[in-house]
From TrEMBL:
Organism: Kitasatospora viridis
Keyword Iron in record: yes
GO molecular function annotations of the record: metal ion binding
Protein name per UniProt: Pirin
Domain Pirin C-terminal, residue spans: 191-292
Record keywords: Iron, Metal-binding
Phylogenetic lineage: Bacteria, Bacillati, Actinomycetota, Actinomycetes, Kitasatosporales
Cofactor: Fe cation
InterPro entries linked: Pirin, Pirin_C_dom, Pirin_N_dom, RmlC-like_jellyroll, RmlC_Cupin_sf
SUPFAM superfamilies (alphabetical): RmlC-like cupins
Domain Pirin N-terminal: 38-139
Binding of Fe cation, residues: H76, H78, H120, E122
Family label: Belongs to the pirin family.
Binding note for cofactor: Binds 1 Fe cation per subunit.
Amino acid sequence: MSNLDLKPVTTLCGGDASAGPTRDLLTGRTVQLGESTQVRRLLPTLGRRMVGAWCFVDHYGPDDIADQPGMQVPPHPHMGLQTVSWLHDGEVLHRDSLGSLQTVRPRELGLMTSGRAISHSEESPRDHARLLHGAQLWVALPDAHRHTAPTFEHHADLPTVSVAGLHGTVILGSVDGATSPGTTYSPLVGVDLTLAESSTARTLPLDPAFEYAALAISGSVDVDGVRVEPGSILYLGCGRRELTLLARTDASLLLLGGEPFEEHLVMWWNFVGRTDEDIRQARADWEDGARFGEVHGYDGARLHAPKLPPGPLMPRGRER
């Protein structure tokens, strides 16, 4: 998925990890994605730029698209990151410059590693389900792997874990002995958790070296005593070994975590780099038609990159 802001803010990324557990509830902002889809952008926000290597989270739906085209995101580039496509309802057809053509369905993992350069498009199939509901997430690649060759993975069968009152699907990383087949390049975890109304549960074991955040996909759930509903994300800090959840309704949430990301980054539009030159060169390469390849089969023109800000893009770490 693309960041379609025509005037994207330069994001000076870093974890700003708390030294211990915290409860910081942050509200996302509404962003128009393509012609017909609105998303709630939960990362980056004014209060939080990253959670581990997770650097971008959009939550969309549930949208009734029975008589609409649904998601239509034209070909666009990525660099220095992984995209994670995650659905609860509907389907998304992925095409990329490697020649991949894959329909991603609910609770299947669509994982694209951009590495040095890739381009892709995402759209609802012509014959699609009535509802579209899911999340698009980005993971920043560490410096040692940001120039790796681009790849696309599709995993339809993901491991699940359960405790009393709680069921989880492991999207990336490992939890309670279950490990996702998705490729990762830094210590992180992503798990989709579901709870029935009125159930109380403690989450599966957490790594105290990780920082965590929880975002509601559907329903209403108290996370460590804080009400979390769709459109908000609760930053939980580090130092936790478990987490108490109370479902006010039938609810589903994403729990994201990872070791605090120590590297200094610049994230602008659909690129994650380390220097101003990285970003400017990537933009020029996309506009010139080089490096990022071509997406075949999408019925429409590719996106053009927004204008860069006049001043240099300065990499930063956690300091604000």
